[in-house]
């Protein structure tokens, strides 16, 4: 139903910045709450940030609050994740996801996922 494609990952030194993008298909993008998750090898997928359909509400994991910013451009059907002050523990595959109009923090609540983009932070 919904197709999501992430981009913008790469290798960055600790303290650096990176911006991820997630392009979505469909004509009802503005009605979808969107979220970013990340998964490191051997670990479960964890919530990073979420944003309501209008962009009026955002939520962040405590581990990234103050460093990461989620935003969206509904005219472009795109969600962004600006990551500043990156740490080695931020290294993971980052995924965008949507499950409808409601924003959840649990990965199992999301039905649609992108393919992921690798973020590696060197020390």
Task: Give a verbal description of the structure.
The protein is mainly beta and 123 residues long. 0% of the residues lie in helices and 49% in strands. It has no helices and eleven strands. The strands form two sheets. Strands 2, 4, 5, 6, 9, 10 and 11 form a seven-stranded mixed β-sheet that branches. Strands 1-3-8-7 form a four-stranded antiparallel β-sheet, with no helix packed on it. The model has no long low-confidence stretch (mean pLDDT 96).
Q: Calculate the terminal CA-CA distance, rounded to whole Å.
A: 40 Å
Total count of strands = 11
Query: Low-confidence spans: pLDDT under 50, at least 5 residues?
Result: none
Q: Helical region count?
A: 0
Strand portion, in percent?
Answer: over 45%
List keywords for this structure.
single chain; 123 residues; mainly beta; seven-stranded mixed sheet; four-stranded antiparallel sheet; 49% strand
What secondary-structure arrangement, pairings included, does this model have?
Elements: E1 4-7, E2 10-13, E3 18-24, E4 33-39, E5 46-51, E6 58-60, E7 68-73, E8 78-83, E9 92-100, E10 112-113, E11 117-122
How is this structure best summarized?
The chain is mainly beta and 123 residues long. Helix content is 0%, strand content 49%. Strands 2, 4, 5, 6, 9, 10 and 11 form a seven-stranded mixed β-sheet that branches. Strands 1-3-8-7 form a four-stranded antiparallel β-sheet, with no helix packed on it.
């Amino acid at each position: 139903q919904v197709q999501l494609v992430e981009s913008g990952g790469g290798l960055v030194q600790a303290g650096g910045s990176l911006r991820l993008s997630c392009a979505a298909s469909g004509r009802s993008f503005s009605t979808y709450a969107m979220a970013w998750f990340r998964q490191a090898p051997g670990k479960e997928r964890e919530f990073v940030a979420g944003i309501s359909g209008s962009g009026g509400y955002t939520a962040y994991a405590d581990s990234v609050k103050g460093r990461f910013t989620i935003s969206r451009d509904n005219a472009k059907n795109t969600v962004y994740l600006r990551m500043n002050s990156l740490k080695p523990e931020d290294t993971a595959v980052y995924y965008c996801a949507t499950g409808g109009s409601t924003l959840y923090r649990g990965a199992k609540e999301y039905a649609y996922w992108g393919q992921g983009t690798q973020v590696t932070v060197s020390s």
